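Title: Comparing notes on inverse folding

I've been comparing how different people in this forum approach sequence design from structure. To keep things fair, I'm posting one structure and asking everyone to reply with a full sequence. Here's the target:
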């Protein structure tokens, strides 16, 4: 499998907010079936990389999906190519029910990998019990599950999940980790932005560390664990 084109290949990507140059040449690959963790301190540009991949910030460089160059594409085209995105704020639609939020994730050309309402509800009975409830009243953990399930209903090959465990209690963090593992078992790859290093290192197949808008480390969780210089320079607070 390592000979085939990666599902996602990011090369020398730069991104800008107006005059502010935030990404300075990011390189990163996600291969089929992998959970890849992207670590780094706050403000280094991890969320901006997700937005650059989704084409919602101004970007330069090469972003390939299954070998196809996408740097000139629009956000809806990225979704159509099979890239799902769960942003940091979870983007739940208040005023809509849990079920309406899920249905909004459905995609006209959803394929065999797409999650269905039945699959979501069998996985998360608490969402089924609250299917007719305004999604805004859910707990933080339930909102995160809902946001991830909504992304899965479009049948993506890859999802970008930005800090899913932010603000969640340890028990719920464990549920998020289990859902991420379940997602990859169902054939969907994951790019996971995380602050919780222990959890990320436990479930990731490969780890990147970002510092000041660049990739500063690429390796296995084990290689990162023994790379004290990288940990000290780029991860410890
Ligand atoms: N909408 C924005 N406009 C201008 N600057 C931004 C915006 N969003 C983020 N930034 C800046 O870009 C840098 C990277 O931010 P971000 O990608 O959110 O980092 P991370 O997700 O790693 O915490 C930070 O310096 C941040 O202040
Ligand atoms: Mg962020």
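Reply #1:
Here's my take.
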């Amino acid at each position: 499998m390592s000979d085939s084109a990666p599902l996602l290949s990011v090369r020398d990507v730069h991104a800008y907010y107006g005059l502010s140059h935030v990404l300075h040449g990011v390189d990163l690959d996600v291969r089929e079936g992998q959970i890849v963790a992207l670590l780094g301190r706050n403000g280094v540009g991890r969320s901006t990389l997700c937005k650059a991949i989704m084409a919602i910030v101004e970007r330069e460089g090469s972003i390939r999906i299954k070998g196809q160059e996408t740097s000139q594409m629009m956000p809806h085209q990225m979704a159509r190519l099979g890239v799902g995105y769960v942003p940091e704020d979870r983007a739940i639609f208040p005023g809509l029910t849990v079920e309406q939020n899920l249905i909004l994730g459905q995609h006209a050309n959803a394929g065999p990998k797409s999650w269905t309402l039945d699959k979501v509800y069998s996985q998360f009975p608490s969402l089924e019990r609250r299917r007719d409830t305004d999604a805004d009243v859910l707990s933080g953990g339930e909102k995160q599950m809902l946001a991830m399930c909504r992304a899965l209903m479009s049948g993506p090959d890859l999802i970008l999940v930005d800090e899913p465990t932010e603000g969640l209690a340890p028990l719920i963090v464990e549920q998020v980790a289990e859902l991420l593992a379940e997602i990859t078992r169902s054939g969907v790859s994951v790019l996971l932005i995380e602050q919780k290093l222990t959890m990320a290192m436990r479930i990731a197949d490969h780890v990147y560390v970002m510092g000041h808008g660049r990739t500063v480390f690429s390796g296995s969780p084990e290689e990162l664990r023994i790379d004290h210089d990288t940990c000290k320079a780029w991860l410890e607070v």
